[in-house]
Amino acid sequence: MFTKKKASPPAPSARPPMPLWNDSFGRLAQRSGQALLVLSIAVIIVFAATRVQLVVVPVLIALIVASAFRPVVRLLEKRMPRVAAAIISLLAGVLAFGGVITIAVFQVQSQFTTLQKSVSSGITTIADFVQNGPISFDAKQISAVQKTLVDFVTSAQFGSGALAGVSTAAELVTGAVLTVIVLFYFMKDGPMIWAFLITPFRSVVHAKLRRAGNSAVETLGGYVRGTAIIALVDAVFIGVAMLILQVPLAIPLAILVFIGAFIPLIGATVTGIIAALVTLVTNDLTAAIIVVIVVIAVQQLEGNFLSPYVMGKSLKLHGLVVLLALTAGTILGGIFGTLISVPAAAVAWVIIKHWNDRMVPEPGTDTDTDPATATAKRASAAA
Length: 383
Fold this sequence. Notes:
14 helices, 0% strand
């Protein structure tokens, strides 16, 4: 007669249980894992690159130079085949670099004996000033330092010490030849090489990689060309000042200033200080002060007028990022790492920025991710 009333099922929860990896901590864990994976891959790549520097360094140098010469190759390509344009651009670059190095070497050789005597006399003058100046130092310590410096500049090591860090001359020759060969192929077939490397990717990813590659080359080339113009202005003004003051090795020091300008924040300042110190030990205090004034004036001209106009938007990085990039590059790659760290950081930022931009498909561009579907659509449209 009486039936037991079945209990009604519980009311469904207003919020269904969330899967394990879909909450905020799960998403954070996923992103952390992805970041660690990318960081691990980057560490492996850097470690592998340091093991094969004889290959990596020429390739990177060739890539940087090819990016800088890209407008020249494009301009010549309008009037001649691309192969001829690449050959002419390569010869122009090699002759310019070789001419600068030859001039520097001849200047050093012709003034080497005079430089040794001037440096020895300058060291003695500085030691006397330090010992008898307003701040007195221990005479024995000053004499020991003075003897060490004079013995060094009058020894054979002073002339050969610049190449002490090079393992063998064969590595230099091999690296130079490899750089020239790779540079020629980058100038001649750079766009084709990049198109081949991104061939496995399809659709939006392929378009993003193509655009990121073009933007990276434009940024790198603009940075190198802008820095070269600024470095040339620095070297000309400081070099002319030292020539007027009859400073020995004025031209090699101007070349050093030119190279130092490629190191942001500190390069031009450090090389300017070196030029002033050489002027101090080879000439006198008045000439050194004049060189310092010229260096400061050139730095102000560069920072306030020349750099914003020439560089434009080629390099938009915060000063802290530049400093950290310089530090990391110096630790990982020495002098070469210092030179390429900032442009590498700028290129990486440009790639990330363009990668995150939303792609708008061009008219007639197939955006299907499945190659088979894209092929079927094209066949259907043709029918």
